Amino acid sequence: MALKEHLREARNRLFKSALAVLAGTVAGFFLYEPVLEALGAPIVAINDQDGRTASLNFDTAASPFDLLIQVSIFLGVVISSPVWLYQLWAFITPGLKTKERRTALGFIVVAVPLFLTGIYLAWLILPNAVRVLTDFTPDQFSNLISVTVYFAFVLRLMLAFGIAFLLPVVLFGLNMVGLVSGRQILKAWRITVFLVCLFAAMAAPGGDALSMFYLAVPLLLLFFVAIGLCLLNDKRRASRNAARDADVETHADRATPLNDL
Questions:
Q1: What are the boundaries of the signal sequence (predicted)?
Q2: Which stretch of DSSP H or E encloses residue 245?
Q3: Is there a domain that residue 248 lies in?
């Protein structure tokens, strides 16, 4: 494809993804109140279980509407994840062979659960993260937290975990199209471990060690699994290329029949 066709293809894929997110946002609008109540539960628990004063407050007149839009868009991204993940992969698959495309269908099967697993893991650690961070509040003070600031923290945490769990799958996808080999990744495993830990430290908005640990350990496991799959794919590709080269050499050495001449 020419560059102009690539840009047109990217535009179409982005447009379809945007429509899916928009439809998911409309659905998220109806789920806003129960989701808001569930995400605010860790703050309520501080009052009920720990006996400390903590509350969520709207600090401006437009804050309730702003929060409604933010939470609805976040839910739209989550609900439409099968669509925009498919559009992302469909933009790459035209460069693959037919057999590789069939193998690549597993991308969607794996990517969507991993993205949702990352969000679910962030959901599990959210109460502990909130409790650890608010424990630094002196006894003579209260936690009167802005709703917009709190939910920006929560949504950023969940999106960071979800996207982080997609990175190993993207790494394997780059190997599928031949942009990176398993050996190249394996040689840089020390740098990979460092970058994963650095990303975990930056992606965990709370800055607490617990959130970083919960994000870094699963990511490292997924990265090393992805490296193993990349090595297997490289071995299979090398065997296929060797067989093709041997077949070409065999046919090149064979005399051309007289009838063909």
A1: none
A2: helix 209-253
A3: no
